[in-house]
Specification:
Elements: E1 21-25, E2 33-40, E3 42-47, E4 56-62, E5 68-73, E6 76-81, E7 87-91, E8 93-98, E9 104-108, E10 114-116, E11 119-125, E12 128-135, H1 137-149, H2 155-171, E13 183-184, H3 201-210, E14 214-217, E15 228-229, H4 239-243, E16 265-271, H5 272-283, H6 290-297, E17 307-310, E18 313-316, H7 317-324, E19 330-336, E20 339-345, E21 353-354, H8 355-363, H9 368-376, E22 380-383
Parallel strand pairs: 1-13, 15-21
Antiparallel strand pairs: 1-12, 2-5, 2-9, 3-4, 3-8, 5-6, 6-7, 8-11, 9-10, 11-12, 14-22, 16-20, 17-18, 19-20
Length: 391
């Protein structure tokens, strides 16, 4: 590919046609109960009982109706009115099914309420309530852009995020199919917060609509492995440094605009004895080993490094980052009394698109195609069409 113009056409992605995705909600919480209310439109509440092919209709509720509470009780769930606390029965599972276009549910646990379009299923899981929404692909993309980038309104950046969210979803369909859903709503998949709300909701919906069906394809015409992070510090990281597997389009590259981003710099103090103990475990030596201590005290990275090396061996810097909760793996070491002071650059794993820099590019007038080309280079930017799949 010689440039952005080469992205205009190409073979179609050989992926399935997902009319909807199943996403596990509140996946980082152990829920014992949840509040449910119809925010807009109407929903039929259906109960599926063991041994019955057809579901029972429990009720039909519209916006303005009193909300309800669903409580986990052993292997079943109980439905209660929020106003009277009257029980409406115990069920194995309940499905809220939208009856009108644009219908949305309001769900709330401990945090801010979320709005969700699509069919929402509630059941008792092994560690609490299991809540799964079956949502259209484009609605899912909008919810991910809200979760991953909803704090800004720069349109071309939001378009780039929409393409990444859509590409990730198509590549990871069925990732958790053995558990009854495709993806989770947390960082292990993508942060998905439901229907966009807030200051930039309209901008998010416009960005998703403007890039509808658009994905990044790899050399085999599959949805690409697209990853991103907050800030590279000025240089992105090769995929093999973090995950041990080289990906042709996820190489280390200069990223100067990240140096201007709000997450560009950080400082962290770590007790020297704590660091010595950890290093000694990795190198199979004593925490008092002078050579190891001196090597770490003098460790610098004029450019990003893959490892901290000493005595012919190396520790992958991502392991050190996770052990001490560092913002990134790019740091220099200084000694101050009984502490090491790590002065670092960047925020996140460093692979792929850096959000801070992509926002700045958008503000400078780069369109979303140019932003994606800068970070992913040779990938095809193409329209995914279910009617034009490869065999």
């Amino acid at each position: 590919m010689g440039g952005i113009s080469a992205w205009a056409s190409g073979p179609r992605a050989s992926v399935q046609n997902p009319s909807s995705l199943k996403v596990r909600l509140f996946s980082t919480e152990s829920l014992e109960q949840i509040q449910v209310e119809v925010d807009r439109g109407r929903f039929a509440v259906l109960s599926q009982r063991s041994g019955r092919r057809r579901p029972d209709t429990v009720a039909v509720w519209a916006s303005g109706a009193p909300g309800h509470t669903i409580v986990k009780e052993s292997k079943k769930i109980r439905l209660r009115s929020r106003t009277s606390a009257v029980s409406l029965g115990r069920f194995e599972a309940l499905h809220w099914v939208p009856l009108d276009p644009g219908s949305r549910l309001r769900l709330q646990t401990k945090g801010q309420p979320r709005l969700h379009a699509g069919v929402v299923r509630f059941a008792a899981g092994a560690e609490g309530l299991l809540v799964v929404v079956e949502v259209g692909l484009e609605d899912y993309v909008a919810g991910v852009v809200q979760g991953e980038a909803g704090h800004v309104g720069t349109q071309e950046f939001l378009k780039a995020q929409a393409v990444l969210a859509r590409t990730f979803a198509l590549r990871n369909l069925g990732k958790h199919s053995e558990l009854g859903y495709d993806l989770k709503d947390d960082v292990s998949s993508q942060v998905y917060l439901g229907y966009p709300t807030g200051r930039f909701a309209d901008s998010i919906l416009a960005a998703v609509s403007a890039t509808r069906d658009t994905v990044l394809l790899d050399e085999q015409c599959r949805p690409a492995l697209v990853v991103f992070h907050a800030n590279s510090g000025g240089q992105t990281v090769a995929s093999e440094w973090v995950w041990g597997r080289p990906v042709p389009y996820l190489k280390s590259r200069p990223d100067p605009l990240s140096e201007q981003g709000p997450s560009a710099r950080w400082v962290k103090r770590i007790p020297r004895d704590k660091m010595h103990r950890w290093l000694a475990e990795q190198f199979k030596t004593e925490p008092t080993n002078d050579g190891m201590i001196e090597a770490f005290a003098r460790f610098e990275q004029p450019e990003r490094k893959e490892r901290f090396a000493w005595n012919g061996r190396g520790i992958p810097l991502p392991a050190l980052r996770h052990a001490f909760g560092l913002r990134s793996t790019w740091f220099d070491v200084e000694v101050e009394g009984s502490d090491y002071v790590l002065k670092g650059r960047g925020f996140g794993h460093g692979v792929g698109l850096a959000q801070d820099a992509a926002i700045i590019m958008s503000e400078k007038g780069y369109n979303y195609r140019a932003i994606l080309y800068f970070y992913y280079g040779v990938l095809e930017l193409d329209a995914w069409r279910p009617t034009a799949l490869l065999p």
